[in-house]
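Box 3.1. Reading complex inputs
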Amino acid sequence: MYRLRLFAIRHAGSFEWIYQRLESVMVALDPVFSRIGYNRVERPVALLESGIKGVLFDCKMCGQCVLSSTGMSCPMNCPKELRNGPCGGVRPGGYCEVKPWMKCVWSLAWDGSTRMKGGHKIREVLPPVDRSLKGSSSWLRVSREKAAKLREAHEASRTAVAQAFPEARAIEPAAAPLADEPASAVNREVLKK
Ligand code: SF4
């Protein structure tokens, strides 16, 4: 699979695009996943993720995917599992000192990042691996977190507008019109209360 790994680096820009589309789809599916139960979909999605990423990136299912920050080069393939750049043992030509037949994953990461729009993310410091997440689906976790943030932001903006229009809230708590309500639509009885 090493060759496919190199292929992924050469096409890091395309994989970045695919990943962004995939994330949008997963976020859009949040209501479906919530309805079925995230616990129930975890296993099938993790199996699918493991199969696809195992072939393409030699994924080890660490549960905290950072491919979009590492030029599509999986840092878990580093024999030392370094997540923030190479060790001091990179051989001439960018080869690994532990596995001399293999290019250093960080040398590949730098190469892949130059082909990605978000390649600058390689400069950000990544958190240490949380071993408790091993085997779980990163796709599901990230999309679930993103969907929750979007819901929170939506709720916050709705609440902010609603608080600015208490009368509108009295009439219809689920809506906060920006324009004055037409007289015919105002329920005087509700307002009196
Ligand atoms: S960073 Fe983790 S989830 Fe992503 S490809 Fe590597 S092992 Fe798999």
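In summary: The chain has two domains: 2-74+113-144, 147-192.
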